[in-house]
Design goal:
It is a single chain. The chain has 280 residues and is α+β, with helices and mostly antiparallel strands. The chain contains three helices and 16 strands. The protein has one domain. Helix content is 26%, strand content 42%. Strand 12 and strand 13 form a beta hairpin.
Length: 280
C-alpha cells in the first residue's frame, strides 16, 4: 500500500509539472501572439501617422512657392496635431522633413536633357520652432543673387525672369562655364537677351548681374547639348530652390516605426520653359 501511495504521489507530481509546463507554454504563446498583434496594430497606426505627415507636408508645399522647405519635429504643436488619432494609449512621435531648397546641389544631365533651377526660394513664415505657416499667402520669397556653377563639359544655359507686371525676359549663352554666376562667371559675365515688345522681338547683350537684379522669379535652365552625360554642381550663400523635392515622414507608435519617402523631379513641371524663345 505504501509503494502504491508513493507511486501515486510521483504520478501526481509529474502530472502537475506537465500541466504547469503546458499552461506556461500556452500562456507564453498567448503573450507572444498578443505582442505580435499589438506590434502589427502599432505598425498600422505608425504607417497612418507617417502618411498623414506626408500628406500634410504636401498640402503645405502647395500653399507656397518653389523652394518651400519645412521641418516638423517631435516637440512641435503640429506633431501633436497629427498624432491625435493614432494611438492615444501609447506614446506617439510623428515627424516630417520637406527639403526643397539648399545651398548646394550636385546633379547629372543626360545627353539632350535639362535641369531647371529656380533662383529663389520660399522661406515661409515661422509659426512654431522651425515649422512654417501652412496657410496660403504666407510666403516669404528670398532671391538668389549669386551662385557658383561648375560642370565637366559644355552646356547651354538660359535664364528666364519676369518684371513687376509679369512680362517675361530671357538671357542665354552656349559654352563651357564655371565660376561665380551673378557677379562673375569665369570670362562670361554677359549673355544674349531676348524679349517680346508687343509684337516685336528685341535682342541685345546684357550683363548677367544686371539681369538678375532687374527681374524676379528668375529660373536657370541648364541644357546638355553634347553626346555625353554632364555632371554639375551649383552652390550659393543665399540658398536656391532645388530641381528636386523630397519628403521623409516618420511615425513611431510604441516600438513600431514607419518611414515614408517621397521624391519628385521638379524640372519636369517646367518642361515648357526649355522651348522658350529665349533659347539661343
Amino acid at each position: 500500500m505504501q509503494n502504491q501511495s508513493g507511486f501515486s504521489t510521483i504520478i501526481a507530481i509529474l502530472m502537475t509539472a506537465f500541466l504547469t509546463i503546458l499552461s506556461a507554454s500556452i500562456l507564453n504563446l498567448f503573450v507572444v501572439e498578443n505582442n505580435i498583434n499589438h506590434f502589427l496594430s502599432d505598425g498600422i497606426s505608425a504607417y497612418m501617422g507617417a502618411e498623414w505627415a506626408l500628406e500634410y507636408s504636401l498640402l503645405k508645399s502647395t500653399n507656397h512657392r518653389e523652394g518651400f522647405s519645412d521641418v516638423i519635429s517631435r516637440v512641435d504643436r503640429e506633431s501633436e496635431l497629427l498624432n491625435n488619432n493614432t494611438s492615444p494609449s501609447k506614446k506617439t512621435i510623428i515627424t516630417s522633413a520637406l527639403e526643397a531648397s539648399w545651398k548646394s546641389f550636385t546633379g547629372t544631365i543626360t545627353p539632350g536633357g535639362f535641369e531647371i533651377i529656380p533662383l529663389f526660394y520660399d522661406k515661409g513664415i515661422t509659426i512654431d520652432n522651425t515649422v512654417k505657416n501652412p496657410n496660403k499667402n504666407t510666403s516669404n520669397l528670398q532671391k538668389t543673387n549669386t551662385f557658383l556653377v561648375t560642370q565637366d563639359g559644355d552646356i547651354s544655359w538660359n535664364i528666364i525672369g519676369n518684371d513687376s507686371v509679369g512680362k517675361t525676359f530671357g538671357i542665354a549663352w552656349t559654352g563651357g562655364m564655371s565660376g561665380s554666376f551673378g557677379t562673375i562667371w569665369a570670362a562670361i559675365t554677359e549673355g544674349f537677351e531676348k524679349h517680346m515688345d508687343g509684337n516685336e522681338m528685341k535682342a541685345g547683350i546684357r550683363t548677367i548681374e544686371n539681369f538678375l537684379s532687374s527681374y524676379t522669379n528668375n529660373y536657370l535652365i541648364l541644357s546638355n547639348i553634347s553626346n555625353n552625360s554632364i555632371a554639375y554642381n551649383i552652390s550659393s550663400t543665399d540658398s536656391f530652390s532645388l530641381p528636386t523635392r523630397s519628403i521623409r515622414s516618420s511615425s513611431t507608435v510604441g516600438k513600431s516605426k514607419q518611414n515614408i519617402d517621397f521624391f519628385e523631379n521638379r524640372s519636369r513641371l517646367f518642361d515648357m520653359i526649355k522651348y522658350s524663345v529665349f533659347s539661343q
